[in-house]
Amino acid sequence: MSTPPRFSLTNKVIIQFGGTGLLGRALVDAIAGAEATLVVASRNRPALEAVASTQNAAGHQVDVEEVDICSEASLHSLRNRVLAQHSRIDGIVFNAVSRPMTGPDGDLEQWRASMEVNSTGFFATVRAFGDAMAENGSGSIVNISSQMGMIGPNPWLYEGTNMSAPPDYFFHKGGMINLTRYLASHYGDRNVRVNVVSPGGIYDPGKPQADAFLKRYGKMTMLGRMANADEIGGAVVFLLSDAATYITGANLPIDGGYTAK
Prior knowledge:
Layout: E1 13-17, H1 22-33, E2 37-42, H2 45-57, E3 61-66, H3 72-86, E4 91-94, H4 108-136, E5 139-144, H5 167-187, E6 192-199, H6 211-220, H7 233-240, E7 251-254
Parallel strand pairs: 1-2, 1-4, 2-3, 4-5, 5-6, 6-7
C-alpha cells in the first residue's frame, strides 16, 4: 500500500480562520489543493460560501463554518461541531485580522477594537483548538504574522502617498510571533507544533499600491518586488504537513529578503 507524500495534507482536517481576503483566498487554494479536508471559518458566511463553491467545483473538500473568534462559546461550539463531523482536528491556520487603524493618530477606540480581535481573539482561538489537538496527541498550528512584526516602519516607503504604517498592526504581529514561541513550549510535550510565517508586502492587483511605494518597496527586497498572494501558501502547507514534524517555535519570513538586507 502506498502512503501519502509527506508534503501532502491528505486525510488531514484543517481549520482556517479568515479566508475571504486576498491572502485568505490564496491560502484556501493552497491548503485545499494539498488535498486537506478544509474548514474555513469567519463571521462572513456568504463570502466564505463563494470561496468554498469555487474550490468544491474544482474537486476539493472545503466546508464553511461561521464563528466569532471574540467569543469563547462560539469557538468551542465550532470545535465541537468539527470534532463531531470529522472525529479529529489535525491543524489550524490563524489568518483572521482586524485593521481599524490607518496611522498613529487614530481614535483610541480603534486600538481597543483591534486588540479584541488580534490579541484576545487570537489567543482564545489557538487555546481552544490547541487544547483539542493536545488531547489527541498531535497537531499543527500555523499563525500568519507579518514582517511588520519583526521590524519598525520605514517612513521613506510612504512619502508622497496616502499610505501609512498602523501601530496596532505592528504591535499585534510582533506579539503573535512571541506568543507562538510560548505556545510551542506549552504544547510541545503533547506533540502539537506551533509555528508562524511572516509575509512581506503582498501586491494586490485589485487595489494596487501607489507606484512610488511599489518602486521603493522593490528596492528594499533582494528579489526586487512585492510578493504575490499565491507565494505564501507553500510555506503554510509545509508547516502543516508531516514534512515538518520536527519544526516548532519557528518564525519563517516570506519577504523576498526584505528583513535580511
